[in-house]
Amino acid sequence: MERVFWLLGPYVIFTLAFGGVVIPKLNLILDLVCRQYFADKQAHDPDFTLNPALLADPQRKFGSDNPECKIPEVQKNVATFMLIMSLLTGSLSAIVVPRIGHLSDRYGRGRLMAFASVGGVLAELITVLAAQFPEVVSYRWMILGSVFDGLTGSFTAGSIMCYSYTSDCTPPSNRAVALGLIQGCLFAGLAFGPLLAGFFIKWTGTSVYLFYVVLGCHTAFALFVWLVVPESLSKRKQLAAREKWDKEQELRAQTSGSWLHTIRTANPFAPLRVLWPKGPGTSPALRRNLVALAADDAIMIGAPISAGAVIILYSELSFDWGNLESSLFISALSMVRVFILMGLLPLVNYFGRIRPAARLRRESGVAAVERNSGADNLDVWLLRIALMSDVLGTVGYVLSRSEEFFVTSGMVTALGGLGSATSQAIISKHVPSERVGQLLGAIGMLHALARVFGPVLFNGLYAATVGFFPKAIFVLLASIFGIGLLASFLVRPHVVWHDEPEEEREPLNPGTFDTAAEQVPIDEDQVRFQ
């Protein structure tokens, strides 16, 4: 558990920058697209008079503050542009993320976590150039930034590496709490980042410098996790995973001439096979659990991310919100999630798991060794409660007629923060430790696919209905969460992928280890938590 705290410090800084730039970046795109829209309109219609406010320095005036930009035509162009960016990032991430997850089982989490940040650095560099020199660097160059971001796995790969790192360092009983801390840092960044960004913009008098700060935070995070954060996987586990991989490759090479092998190799969805495992130690219940949990996790992570931008666009259009109001809304929702993940979830875990286990240990006089044993009843019900809150909150969005009701509905959805941490912990409890990276890589692929198809659904639907029924996005969102809630009732507790026999897990080359130092390949987690 101590190693997780090495990750929290840089992650907090990273998420503060990430949260602080969400609204300014959205409104930067809105401003640049709006200016381009009216410039094109003036070029095609010489009689059209362009409002001088739209030619103002973008360092001083954003599109959300221009009433001329709050028209369906501009909103449609913004939604379409963001859709293109999301499609590129998501589709490339879907290919890259599962491979990064699988590689991390063999080469460690830290270096690949740093690699996942490189694309973000390049993307923010292009954003800085577009914000600083809008007349020279077109906002369309930000599409190239999305390509760079996707080629390194984007935020999805970084999150999966953080979850894998945390799973390596924590026992099953505390895993949800540890993952809650990681996700709590994310929402703390979303809560306080916009406030700090607002003060920073007011202090400097321009928003452009904020993008420089974000670029620096991305770079610092990548360097810190690469050079400073200790690796969570021991050299022994990494080497054993590599040798197991080599053996699998040798077996595949023997069938490389078959057409079936060629099809499997070329299949871009091949990493998802880990969600439907077969062979010794598996069962139909395991396969059903993994598929249902993967679907729920993709919904709880992907749906809010995919719909987030258009929810802000909707609120700014319907309630005449600007930077301040949108930032306060995001901050309030995120602060509630921080309280739930860092305050409520540890309390629930203590009274639901830690305290009963301590009482059992006192009564029996035996210290139990913690092993992965699948989800328990507490896990399952936390997941269902979280999804129920998401359903109720999004229905509230549909029914809202005032800002107060809209904000209250958002607070109800914030309780869904329990589900994201719980689902990641449950999934990692179903598989042996040497498959955590591979499994979470497949989950990351689903997250990336959600970033592909989610924006198509939400941005496309918003662009098509903003003129007559903009709340259609909330109807779709409530339906998706409803499907996730139904899927959660398929999950059964205490189902696990039983570990392979120890002799099958030993390294293929016994001479790799010093027999004097490691006479028996003891699992480090067992030693730590006995």
TrEMBL record:
Main location: membrane
Region annotation (Disordered) ranges: 501-530
Membrane topology listed for this record: Multi-pass membrane protein
Localization annotation: Membrane
Domain Major facilitator superfamily (MFS) profile residue range list: 12-496
PROSITE patterns: MFS
InterPro entries xref list: MFS, MFS_dom, MFS_trans_sf
GO molecular function per UniProt: transmembrane transporter activity
Regions that span the bilayer: 78-100, 112-133, 139-165, 177-201, 207-229, 290-315, 327-352, 405-427, 439-462, 468-491
Keyword annotations from UniProtKB, A to Z: Glycoprotein, Membrane, Transmembrane, Transmembrane helix
Protein name: Major facilitator superfamily (MFS) profile domain-containing protein
Naturally occurring in which organism (per UniProt): Fusarium falciforme
